[in-house]
UniProtKB/TrEMBL annotation:
DUF4283 domain span: 15-85
Organism, as annotated: Turnera subulata
InterPro entries listed in its UniProt record: At4g02000-like, DUF4283, Zn_knuckle_CX2CX4HX4C
Protein name per UniProt: DUF4283 domain-containing protein
Keywords (A to Z) from UniProt: Signal
One Pfam family from the record: DUF4283
Residue intervals of the Zinc knuckle CX2CX4HX4C domain: 150-194
Coiled coil: none
């Protein structure tokens, strides 16, 4: 069956050291995917799962709506093909929505937004908001690729036409678990292997730097 319907399958990894129950995953996904057909889940080692869809349009819809969270943990999706060797699949790169805040109106041009987005390894497209384009308190959304093996970027420093430096904040949507000690999304702070920082007592104040 898997070989015959392989076009309707995604390979997924849950970024967590916790054990995940299939019924729990299925229940949560049913509440957020809103797909037309049925789907099934096949567990693999190390929190890897195969997600099979009855309809190909549902498979495409799930990818377009990513990233997804299950119990506050990231679900990373990759294409699945017959004879694929799971140990050779790289899950380090994931797609995520990021908001660009505090952009001056002088930079609200397509070529400028694309240039800002190039701080990420891969940039697909962006969605401008009417509020941002009118100079109100809005933001630009971009769908970008991040490397889960590297710390999240809190923002980027830019220079305007007058030579003045300013800061564009990045807020990541559906952030899920994040370590505020090392900046990785692969584990929460209390599971980090790095030694605590001297200022870690005020780390909660920094949470708004990453997620809305």
């Amino acid at each position: 069956m898997l070989r015959r319907a392989w076009v309707h399958w995604w390979l997924g990894l849950m970024w967590s050291a916790r054990y995940l129950d299939i019924s729990q995953i299925r229940s949560q996904m049913m509440n957020v995917w809103y797909i037309k057909g049925d789907f099934r889940i096949i567990p693999k080692p190390n929190n890897v799962f195969l997600f099979g869809f009855e309809l190909e349009e549902d498979k495409k819809k799930v990818l377009k709506g990513s990233p997804w969270l299950v119990s506050n943990m990231h679900l990373c999706l990759k294409g699945w093909f017959p004879n694929m060797i799971l140990s050779q699949v790289c899950f380090r790169q994931i797609m995520i929505w990021v908001q660009f805040h505090d952009i001056p109106t002088s930079l609200l041009m397509p070529e400028k937004i694309v240039k800002i987005s190039m701080v990420f390894p891969v940039f697909h497209f962006y969605e401008p908001s009417l509020e941002a384009m009118l100079g109100w308190q809005g933001f630009i959304r971009a769908w970008v690729e991040i490397d889960t093996g590297k710390p999240l970027l809190p923002g980027v420093a830019c220079i305007d036409s007058n030579g003045k430096e300013f800061w564009i904040r990045f807020l990541y949507e559906r952030l899920g678990e994040l370590c505020y000690r090392c900046g990785l999304i692969t584990h929460p702070t209390n599971r980090c292997l790095k030694p605590p920082r001297p200022d870690e007592g005020i780390e909660r104040e920094a949470e708004d730097s990453f997620g809305p």
